Amino acid sequence: MIKMNEKYAQELEHIVAERTSLLVEAQEQTDRLLCEMLPPSIAAQLKAGETIIPRNYESVTVGFCQIVEFMYLMEHCTPAQVISFLNEAFMTFDEIIKCHDAYKVETTGETYMMASGVPSENGGRHIFEIAEIALKIREKTLAYKVTAAPNWHLRVRIGFHCGPIAAGVIGLRSPRYCLFGDTVNFASRMQSNCEANQIQVAESTAKILMENSKYNLTKRGVVHVKGKGDVNTYWLNELILNKQQ
Questions:
Q1: Which intervals hold domain Guanylate cyclase (predicted)?
Q2: In CATH, what class is 52-244?
Q3: Measuring CA to CA, which residue among 166, 179, 149 is closest to residue 69?
Q4: For 41-83, what is each residue's pLDDT tens digit?
């Protein structure tokens, strides 16, 4: 009887250890997913059981990057090839963002949204963080080859804008850190009214960038923007320091 009890205890210990390992693994996976869905600081607060209070931010830069002529891929590639391409492209963008004080807000179809200065404020650096991310993304895409569509060249449209926003966590089961306000809409319009392989900003954003001699911009001219009317816009061409090197 004693030997049977010892054997039972050992089996029970093994089962408990196995179940504990599975629980730890599941928790780690949940934590990784949470950090993919939310900025790290917000994810940490939620894990700690803290309430995320929605708040206003006076100055944030929001950017959008969209893949041009994405329908060509949809028509000439298999669904698996399209998904593989998007994963690879967006992972490349993610790696660029990791080197900056910014984060990926979300991806919707072929559109990638990013922001800086939220939820952690960084003074006036946010506009320069997004500007340099945009330049790096464009540089990467210019050399990108899609083996499944050799006649198609990856091109992107990028637009960004700085200004005030409101931000907060939406949802309980699948929480998302969402940004709201005219700045978000304006940034989206800068992207949608942009040309392929260009980075477009409004005059107010361009003036801030031009105060820093690192950035080369040229005036595009007047663009009619839905909900805004006629807007003076500029192309962000390059980081001058890169050219000198």
A1: 61-191
A2: alpha beta
A3: 149
A4: 888 887 777 888 899 999 999 999 999 999 988 888 899 999 9
